Each structure stands twice: as structure tokens, then as C-alpha cells.
Amino acid sequence: MNFDQLLYERPNIVEFEEKVNELLGKFDSVNSFEEQFKLIDKINSLRNHVLTMLTIAEIRAQLDISDKKYQEEQKFINKNWPVYEKVVASYYERLIRSTFKEQIRQKYGKQLLNLAEINVNTIGSSVIDKLKRENNLISEYTRLMANAKIEFKGEERNLSQLDKFVSSPDRMLRKQAIEKKYELLEQYENRIDELFDSLIQVRTQIAKELGYNSFVELGYARLSRVDYGQQEVADFRKMILKYMVPISEKLREKQRIRIGIENLTYYDEEVRFKTREAILKGDANWMIEKFKTIFQQLSDQPGEIFKLMHENKYLDLTIKENKARGAYTTYLCNEKIPYIYANFNGSRKDVKVLAHEFGHAFQMAIFNQNNNIPEYILPTKEACEISSIAMEFLIWPYMEELFGNDAMNYRFSHLEDAIFAMPYRASIDEFQHFIYTNPNLSLVERKKKWIEIEQKYMPYKTTYNHSYLKKGNFWHQQIHLFKFPFYYIDYAMAQICALQIWSIAQIDMYTAWNVYMDICKQGGRLSFLDLLDHSGIASPFREEAFENMINSIDTWFSNND
């Protein structure tokens, strides 16, 4: 059944809670693990139905923010998702104290119990109303960023539509486009600041009421970081500063020389070549057809899955009026199929976005055909990003089909993107740690800290002369700060892991694909560090992972500069 034909029925959360509580009431009294297993299976079936319905509603609400029906459903989700989470926390409590805990570990793996233990205290009845407020604030930010429009080149354009022009080879055009973008964001500056401040306050209140010292601890628990903590992440940021910032700065200087300008500034970042910039040879539909061939050439399974998703409308990739910004992949449990949401703007980065999101989709599709455990649909955040980022690099051999003679320029820009992103992600992460450790900072203090951190990790930006940026506002457009706190550094961790697969692929594509497939086949059954041990990938918390990557990256750029 295609996505448009899926029937949505608002789930009855009260009934869901009653049914799960009834099953949990039997949990402690049964006399065998087999009976508990049957109860777990029934609870997961109820959960999967609710998750499927809410996922359909969320997708449709974001596809058209003017659709009143699904905007009402989004309000319903914001209000009732904390109730769902509270019910799941009750289930986790039963798992943790089960007399058959060892049998649960043997049947489902230790990760299920690890997840139960770390997530059981991320919610409580006393914070339900505050969680609803948090959800409403996130939704308002999403709507604001989707609705924001400004006239440019004779048309009213939203932020996603303006992004199309920021990589134009015409320097004046891209300058005009990005200045329009900042002019538009300045119109909403005060409200964005208010929303973020409200999120900081309500998240801090939730954390305190749940017994945490700060929201940082709760944020880590929400991300199910079961085998590392704040110190490991702080050390990881230090290694980005030591290893990735110098190479990023060196590449930015080479970029400046290559595009022939005296000073690199805020409207030059996305342009990598003075001539022969990697430009797609067709529109979104053309690109989808090309990707059908690319994924089929990569291997039969990705080809078949992508074709199935396209034919059944489980892809929505183009910018539309009233469509929310962003790109993501989600999963419809009962339909056993992933869904990709994106906003193509015609730039080379559309290729990265589709490969990245399909990497998520592929992992979900191949693992979940025989999985009914919601916790295992995806690995934890940093682990699931390995399959998405690695897919970006595994399609490199087929880039001629999309870019013709400019394919090498795409590869060059794509690898640069990976390197440039890591210092920025470390900046966002350090900023979050600072503001949630110091939740009572003034707005001025908060923005001053952002400028300090930004210049620490991205020194090339110190000369950028735009009033919006000089006020410390660049982070306003980073949705992860608002919607997924502490998630953004996960991309950098995964990047170090994915680049190891890329390095293998430079020598032996067959081996690289097998490593990739093995990671995908584990689903969410392993923690992040256990998954790396299983697959032979060096942990991003180990300095040798950085040292090896720098050598591989230097070699590639030396051979292809």
C-alpha cells in the first residue's frame, strides 16, 4: 500500500495506557519466562500500532503545515507523547526488576535492559505538563522556520528556497541570497531567542524534578548513551580541535586560493571551484531515476528497497509551499517500511542528502523485517548515523552518472564537507554543554559564548562581517539545538567511523560493503561501542582513529588536489 493510501486513525492513548497497564499487572505474577515473553510481545504490538499512527500524522503535518487536520494531530502528539513515554517507562521498570531478567538478557540481548535502565528515569508523572510545553515550543520553532518567507528575485521564498542560491558561482548573487536569508532570520530573531530560552528553562526544570543535576545528564539519558559519558565527549571535542581544526583551516585557505578571492567570507563557504563546480545534470525526478540505477549497481538489496519506496510514495524529496524544512528518515512499524523526507534545492548537496537518508532507510529495512522490538528499530543515535554517512561515501564510484566529467569535483567537495562539518558540530555541542550547565545566562552572555566557541573551532570565521553573525546568531538555524539536544555531536562521532569504511573502500570496495552490511544487520541490538567492537571499527574516543583518518585524508587530497 502506498503512503497516500495509509489510513490514519488517532490512537486512543487512554485505552493504550489501560491495556498496557493490564498486561503489566500480570507481569510480576506469571510463573515462567515464556509467559513474560508473551506479555512483552503483546505490549510491543500495542506500542508499534501507536508509533505507526503517530509517525503517519507527523509526516503529514510536516508535509503541509497549512493542513488543519494534521496540525491538530501534531498538537495531539505534543500533548500525548509524554503519556506514551510514561507508559513505556512503567514497562521498563518491570523489565529491570523481572525475576526472569537473565532470560530476558539471553533472548533479547543486554542492550534492551541497558536501554530500560537508562531511560526509566527520563520521565515521571510530575513532569508531564512540562514535557508537553517542551513539545509545543519545538513545534512552534518548526512552524516559524517553515513559514518564514521573503521576496527575492521576484518571488517570495522560504529559507530552503533561498539556500539554492548560496552556492551560485555568481558571487554577487550568492551574497544577495545569503543577506536576504539573514534579513529574514533577523525579523524572527527575538522570537527564536525567546523560544530557545524557554526550552532551556523548561528542560532544566524537568531535569531537576527528575533528580538530575542539570539537563546535560538528562539529555545524555534521553539519547541512551549507555557506554560513555560527558568526559568521553569532551575528550572527543579536544581531538577535533587537535586534528580536524588544522586540516579544516588548511582546506579553507586552499579553497580561497582555488576560487580566486582575496578574503573568504560568509557567502563563499559553499563554493569550492572557480569553474567546474559539481552541478547536477537534471531535476529531482531525473536524480531519483539515476539513484535507482546507482543503488542497484551497489547491490541488489539497496536497489530493490529504493525502488519499492519510490513506487509506493515513501519518498517526499522536493521543496513545496508550506512544507517544513529539514531532512530525515523515519519508520512505519506496522508497514515494515521506512520513509524519507527531504527538501531538495537543486544543489550538489541533494546527492549527499538522499544517500545519507537512504543509508538510514536501508538499515531499517534490512534489519526490521523480522524485528518487532521498538527499541531495536534503530541503533542509538551516534551508531545509526554510521550507516547513513557511510552510504554517502559508498556511492562515490557512481558519481559520473550524476555529475559527468565533474564527478571528481563532487567527491572533492563532499570530503571537504565532512571535514568542515566536524569543527562546527563540536561548536554546537560545546555550546549546548555550556548553556545547560549555566541555564540562567543572559541572552547577551549566551551569544558572546557562542562567538567565543565558534572562533575557537572555526578561526577562519573571525573576519566575517555581517551584523546578524557578529551578534552571535548563527546557531538560530540549527534545528538540533531546538529539537534534539546533544544529538548533533553524534554525526561527528559517526563521521570518524564512516570515514574508516571510506578508507577501506578506497582499496577494497567488496570488504567495505561487507563491513557496512554487518553494521546494518545488527539494528539496535548493540550499544555504540559494542557495535564498533563487533565490526572492527576504531572508537572515535581513541586518538588512533583520528591519526589514521588524517593520514587517509591527507593522502587522498594529495593524490586528487
UniProtKB/TrEMBL annotation:
Q: Name one Pfam family in it.
A: Peptidase_M3
Q: Please give the InterPro entries that the UniProt record associates with this protein.
A: Pept_M3A_M3B_dom (IPR001567), Pept_M3B_oligopep-rel (IPR011976)
What Enzyme Commission number(s) apply to this enzyme?
A: 3.4.-.-
Keyword set, alphabetical order: Coiled coil, Hydrolase, Metal-binding, Metalloprotease, Protease, Zinc
Q: Please report the stretch or stretches of sequence annotated as the Peptidase M3A/M3B catalytic domain.
A: 166-545
Which positions carry the signal peptide feature in this UniProt record? none
Co-factor(s): Zn(2+)
Which ranges of the sequence are coiled-coil? Answer: 131-205
Does Transferase appear among the keywords?
no
Which top EC class applies here? hydrolase
Iron listed as a keyword: no
The record's GO molecular-function terms, alphabetically, read: hydrolase activity
Q: How is the cofactor bound?
A: Binds 1 zinc ion.
Stated family: Belongs to the peptidase M3 family.
Q: What is this protein called?
A: M3 family oligoendopeptidase
Q: Which species does this protein come from?
A: Lysinibacillus xylanilyticus
